Amino acid sequence: MSRAIGLGAALLLLASHAIAAPADWDIDNRKDSFTDLETCHAQLAQTFAPDSPLMIRAVRYAFFIERRGTSVRVGFENVGPLPSFPGVVQLRVDDRPVVNIVAADTPTDLGRANSGPDLRTIPAEQRPMAESIMRGSLQAGSRYRALEGKRATALLGDMLHGRTTKWRVLGITDAYDASDEIPPIAYALAGCGITLP
Length: 197
What we know:
Layout: H1 2-16, E1 25-31, E2 38-44, E3 61-68, E4 71-78, E5 88-93, E6 99-101, H2 127-140, E7 144-148, H3 150-161, E8 165-170, E9 178-182, H4 186-191
Antiparallel strand pairs: 1-2, 2-3, 3-4, 4-7, 5-6, 5-8, 8-9
């Protein structure tokens, strides 16, 4: 019953909003064979490069929307050869306030593989500090900048109902700067079965 409601909501979403052509989005559905966790990752096929020719080969930004179990995420991945994400993402829908996405917002499971110490071997009174250091390291070294949960669904709701979504990445220097617009997202939301409140 709930699957039928979800499908109906997705079809209604497709019918009522501008939809980017399916070729604009790569949608990947997966189910973990051990945990049964279902993930749907919709990534914009077009990637964006920094303005600087110095960084154009190292950094390519790809916008994505993801449903991981019941959690929703939205952000950018650096799909270039540089194994991290240099900079802070700013998005603005129409004339709404700017949304910043920084390393500390990024879910840690989007970071590099955890190769740190087993926290169970650290004395209990030192564990909170060790966990904080490891979390910060995973987020800073991640190829992603992303929002999760209520901030993600709020941004996606603004994007779905807004006219234009502009974004840019602000780097340490102008060499990292990139900016562009994101096409309509209704197809990606429907493809991943994401319904917004």
